[in-house]
């Protein structure tokens, strides 16, 4: 039963110290809009792998390839701006610490910043993600455990203002992949309690700030 430190959007200064080593977890999960140095510190201090998706305030990580310890972009070696040792799940299906993640980062497009997508663009990316998940399931029989996103599904925990609208395509993605969890950030509760939402067999949780979660 893997246990994870799940973080998103808001840095907790208490975790950005050596005191975090008292937290016993198997992995760190990031749902976006956090300094990559923060994610790298958590993973290093906890001696745990880190899987994440970028948020709309994070640097653009598209176009980078990584082979071993070498990062490449446009055919040239370069410094990867992501968290050291972190696994970027955006648009991918990855297995980390015994869990299978399918990831879709970013938010609805509202200006010219990075990691923003129109509804149609994100729907196209979601269809590609579903194809990858189905192929992996055909190969090894394993389903997706966690759909890791930055933004929530449309009308399920999002907000009416344009930057914080959810993605409509996530409804279909949930329906097809049937993950146990959808974890997202982006929507700041501002101290208000945010109950989980349930769609079919999937529990949707806003993880802004930090949470300790166990996955069965």
TrEMBL record:
Stretches of the chain forming a coiled coil according to its record: none
Domain Calcineurin-like phosphoesterase: 23-189
A Pfam family that the UniProt record links to this protein: Metallophos
Origin superkingdom: Bacteria
InterPro entries associated with the record: Calcineurin-like_PHP, Metallo-depent_PP-like, UPF0046_metallophosphoest
Protein name, entry field: Metallophosphoesterase
Organism, as annotated: Amycolatopsis nalaikhensis
